[in-house]
Amino acid sequence: MSVPLLDPCDETAPVDEATKPAASLHEGLLVALRDFIVEGSLADGARVPERALCERFNISRTPLREALKVLAAEGLIELLPNRGARIRQLSPEDVRELFDVMGGLEALAGRLACERISEAEIAEIERMHHEMYRFYLRREMHGYFHCNQAIHQMIVAAAGNAMLAATYAGLAGRIRRVRYSANLAKDRDRWGEAMREHEVILDALRRRAGAELSEILFLHLRNKQKAAQASS
User: Does the global pTM surpass 0.85?
Assistant: First the structure.
């Protein structure tokens, strides 16, 4: 399997990999490997099968290990001294604490974003929202999740607070697998619930209703936490 280089939210025609610079090829591998892990292809605590991944993505060990270092820094995996890597396993207490903190960070980001966001930024978030909705209607979780995460990241960026953005980025990777799996909860339509919550998020952002958006985002993360616990 060759490494995909396309943004799942961009439905333009493929680009010949031979014309792509090395940095883009590295980023393509990183995105593909991150998706492979986030989407549950390996169990929590499982060893990362380097040889199999090299064959899957048609790469050598060197770029794979460079990508694994990035994913370790993001908190998705753990590097084991002289023993490769394994998928980071979170305890129920870890999940609860991470969602509490992420909920607080996103709530603050929403409040600040409403004070500072430009019309162009709102328009881009709205465009991404509609793209996410198209993936939802087609029941394509892969593309939906990428757009979903992009929206949350754009709200954080619009807050215009570098310390907040750095703290958020430092925790987002650790909880990404859990956020993905929460949409798959079997005893409730969490995917549909999340889509409806995003409609409300977009409406509050358009109106620049900071206190309202702050509360909505916190409850959005709390609902995600409950769904994640139900699906585990």
Answer: no
